[in-house]
Amino acid sequence: YEIYLNGTTGAVPRLPTDPSRLEELAEHRLGPGPVGYVAGSAGDGSTARANRAALDRHRIVPRMLRDVHARDLTTELLGRTLPAPLALAPVGVLSIMHPDAESAAARAAAARGVPYILSSASSTPLEQVAEAMGDAERWFQLYWGKDREVTRSFLGRAQASGYSVLVVTLDTPLLAWRPRDLDQAYLPFLHGVGTANYVTDPAFRAGLAKPVHEDPNAAVMHFLGLFGDAGHTWPDLAFLREHWDGPIVLKGVLHPDDARLAADAGVDGVVVSNHGGRQVAGSIAAADALPGVADAVGDRLTVLFDSGVRTGADVFKALALGARAVLLGRPYVYGLGLDGEAGVDHVIRCVLAEFDLTLALSGHARPDTVTRADLAETAP
Ligand code: FNR
């Protein structure tokens, strides 16, 4: 009721509560390069559209008279208790959106107890983000590159800075064909954005002929050369397992067989994700892949989900389709761009409040009682 109560004095929220209006506002107010980078997707954009269409196709079938007056959103996963089945997805290069970048997003997440997943391509070094978060739950996302020493060093730094879960992104060994960025010839990395963890890393610096400040362009080129490794195969995961003491989650799994391989490789979870439609144009919608993955490994692995989540109702649907929790992506990035930490806080609170209401109004007092029976699939 907070918003309505404030409304009695004539105040309305600083940002829209409707995610499409938030996106429109971001498109309008933020620079075309940065907002194009965030909003854009791969190829013809069909994967990003399919992500939304798949979630829209599933409709909630609410149940009545089930005593939902006392609700508890807490969620157990990967050996920890979260206040709700929600985390902030790893999104790199956030300084293109706001000067406070990842630290602002991380502080907003920390204030609500929502895990913050820091991208290895952040514009702020991981130690600085950790400092901004105090003891709050933080996970580290790894772009698993070509240089083993750099990888090992990143894992050591992340662990020393209190990141507890390692999220390894598998779907981006190469950056995809992204027309909005190509048409504007805009790639943040070429401006040095997103390289903060690299240029502060001793193992990375050891590979440079000159110190970063003497030849920043060479550092960027070196970064681009080792950022991804399209040569990795499943047995290579043993290296990460050996050097990370804690849960490992593989992000970007869509095929049930890959989910089984992940379980066989001894990791702890998967994120069913197509990177928000930014990698494979024409790919299956993430929500369409989710039930198959959940059926294949739900009893062995923690199944998380992202790509297309905009509202609390979407969170509900993802849980019904087999996810244990959901990662929120673009909406919080728009919130950051429009109003810094307060904008991220606004978006997190809107999603959580709407999720709580959706849960209650659909006949549930807790997230873990939601099942596929709560949904009806309608024709596309
Ligand atoms: C991303 N995503 C991403 N994923 C990742 O593992 N590491 C990263 O550095 C980034 N960077 C990134 C930048 C931007 C601008 C976007 C929009 C996305 C993907 C992200 O974690 C998540 O999978 C998607 O954002 C989910 O799609 P939606 O819900 O945002 O459409």
Automatic annotation (TrEMBL):
UniProt key word Oxidoreductase: yes
Domain FMN hydroxy acid dehydrogenase: 11-380
KW Ribonucleoprotein (keyword) present: no
InterPro entries: Aldolase_TIM (IPR013785), Alpha-hydoxy_acid_DH_FMN (IPR012133), FMN-dep_DH (IPR000262), FMN_HAD (IPR037396), FMN_hydac_DH_AS (IPR008259), LMO_FMN (IPR037350)
Cofactor: FMN
Keywords: Oxidoreductase
Family to which the UniProt record says this protein belongs: Belongs to the FMN-dependent alpha-hydroxy acid dehydrogenase family.
Protein name: Lactate 2-monooxygenase
